[in-house]
Amino acid sequence: MFDEAYIPLDSWVSQFVNWLVNNYRDFFQTIKWPVEQILNGFNEMLNFVHPAIIIVVVTLLAWRFSGKGLAVFSAISMFLVGMLGLWTDAMITLAMVLSSVFFCGLVGIPLGIASGRNDRVETMIRPLLDAMQTTPPFVYLVPIVMLFSVGNVAGVLATIIFALPPIIRLTSLGIRGVHPELVEAAQAFGATRWQVLIKVQIPLALPTILAGLNQTIMMALSMVVIAALIGAGGLGSPVILGLNTLDIGRAVIGGLAIVLMAIVLDRITQSMAQKKQ
After folding, report:
1. N or C: which end of the chain has fewer CB within 10 A?
2. How many Å apart are CA 144 and CA 5, to the nearest integer?
3. Across the chain, which distance is largest between two alpha carbons, in Å?
4. What are phi and psi of 218, to 5 degrees?
């Protein structure tokens, strides 16, 4: 009965993407431009600053938000990444993660606030978020490459799509988690909807929003290796190169550097959320 395809959905999708490429290339290049500028800015800044300064800054952030233990671990981890000869790749990866998180926050937090305050908005965007979270990343790498070509910018755009849902969901959850009596009390004292949002809901939801930011950072780092498949540089490159040449040592040091960076960023952002709580 189902020996052949009766609905040529694959052909329809291919034709649709080709139509977009042929008719709206300038539009997608316009979308690409701000991402490219932010990514280049982070990349140039991180590679211009002396590694010792970056290590000191990361160590101070870890000490400020988590304590001496994480500060020592962060300093050792960053120093080890440099000693492995992966400092430049690590800074490219960090620039990609920061760029992705910047745009995820820029888009995700307002959408999460709108979703948290309006049931209709939540109903509309929930299926889209479900699709974004369950679609395998390899599926949308092909249209990303066709629309935006290969390179670091395409990797950042793919990462934004992959890492956006958590910050939207957790921002919405945080806004909805504010006790209704607190909102009613603010309204009883004459606060407008905007004042209730800025002075009551967002401050009380901030720990949950930061937890969403933490999850977005972790998902962005998990895309590093996948993004390397479409020409993005960074720590995913030695992993892919090690896979292609069966060089297990190169793949292991690339993976180790990603793990160390992920632990440092995860612990710092978790500690920030706990302090806000």
Report:
1. N
2. 26
3. 68
4. -65, -40
Q: What is the DSSP string of 129-151?
A: HHHHHHS-HHHHHHHHHHHH-SS
pTM score of the predicted model: 0.86
User: What is the 8-class DSSP label of residue 277?
Assistant: -
Tell me how far apart the alpha carbons of residues 118 and 115 are, in angstroms, rounded to a whole number. Answer: 5
Give CA–CA dist 217/215, Å, rounded: 5
Q: Can you give the pLDDT of all 277 residues of the chain as single tens digits?
A: 666 767 777 787 788 878 887 887 778 788 888 888 888 888 888 888 888 998 999 899 888 887 888 889 989 988 998 888 888 888 888 888 889 899 998 998 899 888 888 888 888 888 888 888 888 877 778 788 877 777 788 888 888 888 888 899 999 888 888 888 887 888 887 778 888 888 888 888 888 888 888 888 888 888 877 888 777 777 878 888 887 888 788 888 888 888 888 888 888 887 876 665 5
Q: In angstroms, rounded to a whole number, what is the distance separating the alpha carbons of residues 126 and 147?
A: 25
As given in the structure block, the two tokens for residue 197 are 């949002």
CB of 94 within 8 A of CB of 261?
yes
Whether the CB-CB separation of 196 and 108 falls below 8 Å is answered with: no
